[in-house]
């Protein structure tokens, strides 16, 4: 019985230990399992009907078995003794082990306690840290929010300031632009006025010069026209001279004579008439002069009617130089 | 800009003003009528086209009238006669003339005509001178003639054309007298005094002699010739009527009797006589036979020629060392030398009809040539360039000079225009031809 109890005790102890060891955190750190736990093992036997019969059967069997077991027990005793001895040794070892284990458990409990404490501490610390963190976070959040707010406010302020500045700048710019525009308009007006005045003056000067130039040009033109007409007439006169000279036969012995003829030209250059203005005194010479004109006809005559008018009637002086 | 322009214009104006001024100056003399001076010309003869005369009534013309006229006019040097083959057409009537064609070829003057056979066996020569550029007739004649006188009539036509176109009388219907020498086989010569048309055609011998004949001289009326004949073995001056053939020895005396020259009045002759010992110039009064000595000089004075006004004579004298021409009044006096600075030899002067020029034989290193001396300026011009030219004689109109020249077969006759531009040998018979004398106009 003892062994049974011991076994039970041992099992219970083991169980407690196991429980303690496994759920150490759930125990209060000062509840220690005591050796009184043996009774509690007895009391802890559960009795029910099935269990009682089974107990009886088991007891009968156990009586038979106890007989056998007594027999056996004698043998067993020996063995048990050996066993006991071994077991005592073992128990001793066990006790030793338990002692160690208790020490270990104690240590472990201590460790656990310490760990719990540590855990508590840690939890507390954690809680505190969490709280701190929360607080910090809250503070940070508050700070952030404040900062944000501040930033926002600052931003807003800045924005507003910028807006204001922009507005002001715009206003200034507008004002300036207006002023500039005004100035420019004034300047433009002034410039225009000046320009107009200058233009007017220039125009007057230009007109004056132009009129002077016109007068000059008119004079030039008149001179040029006269000169051009003169040079044109001279050109035709030269052509007529050449033509008449080419057809003017100077007969032997009549070299020293001279005569003047007036010839009348038609617009096509034909000779309408040849009239002796001043005779050479030699009819043959006069006739050769007349023949020279008639042979040369049609003579070159300007197509310009005004020029033709000046060449309609020409005096030809035949005065061959011997 | 404006100022530059103004400057340019100012420069222009100056230039134009200069031109205008020059022009004004050039025309100032003629008011506002343009005056052109013709100071050059083409020295040329007068262009003329003598179109072959059409012949009416005969199949073949007895004489090429137009050809004779053409040759006459051309020989004068005054006309450039167009060869018939160059003529654009050969019209015989005024209406047939296409003036445009003739103007195209630059022809100024046309002679057209007809030779008509007259019912009496004679002929009528009808011709017109037409001014091509005026397109009108300048002259028109109908000349009745005979077969014998056709050549003379042709020369008359030449004279009329010449006078109408040149204003001076033609000398084609004139005659020339000259002496020919024919050397016979017996070593002797036959001398003939001949009279021919001025172109050398129709020669007539008026005297033939075995002794030398020299120095024929025409009477101013052309009716008679004075000449020198040696038929009396000595020289004598004879006068022969060309119409009747009657001849008369008018001056003969000791020594030389030579070089007769009729005075323009036809009443006197200038002659060279040496009866007083030295050849001197005398005048001989026809009718009275009175001789007047004009020169008196130990040198030889000979070959007298009368000025056309009869108031002076020129003659050849070697009183200066060589033969030169001197002039003396018709009534005598001091002889003045005429030819200066004309070389060593100037002889046998003949007065031109204008009295202002002399034709002389001018000797120089290249030979003896015919020269014309301008008495007013004492300038002279050598007209001929053969080795030996002699005996110049003016045509009565002064346009030509006939002279004798040494040709390949002896001496022959040649004529030159007085400007020397045209020289032509005259148609002559064989033998030597000497001392031509151009007769007066035939009125």
Mean pLDDT of chain B: 88
Largest sheet of chain A, in brief, is:
3 strands, antiparallel
Number of strands of chain B: 32
Q: What is the subunit organization of this protein?
A: heterodimer
Strand order in the largest sheet of chain A: 3-2-4
Q: Provide the structure class of chain A.
A: mainly alpha
List low-confidence stretches of chain B: 1-30
Q: What is the rounded distance between the termini of chain A?
A: 199 Å
Number of distinct beta strands of chain A: 4
Number of helices of chain B: 4
Structure description:
The complex is a heterodimer of chains A (322) and B (443). With 322 residues, chain A is mainly alpha-helical. Chain A has five helices and four strands; from the N terminus they run H-H-H-E-E-E-H-H-E. Chain A has a three-stranded antiparallel beta sheet. The relative contact order of chain A is 0.04. Chain B is 14% helix and 44% strand. Chain B has four helices and 32 strands. Chain B has helices at residues 2-27, 65-75, 99-104, 150-166; strands at residues 34-38, 42-43, 46-50, 54-56, 79-81, 109-117, 123-131, 136-145, 175-183, 189-197, 204-209, 213-218, 224-229, 236-241, 247-252, 257-262, 268-273, 280-285, 291-293, 301-306, 312-317, 324-329, 336-337, 345-351, 357-364, 367-374, 379-382, 389-394, 400-407, 410-417, 423-425, 432-438. Residues 1-30 of chain B have low confidence and may be disordered. At the A-B interface, helix 3, strand 1, helix 4 and strand 4 of A face helix 1, strand 1 and strand 2 of B. Strand 1 (249-250) of chain A pairs parallel with strand 2 of chain B, so a sheet runs across the interface.
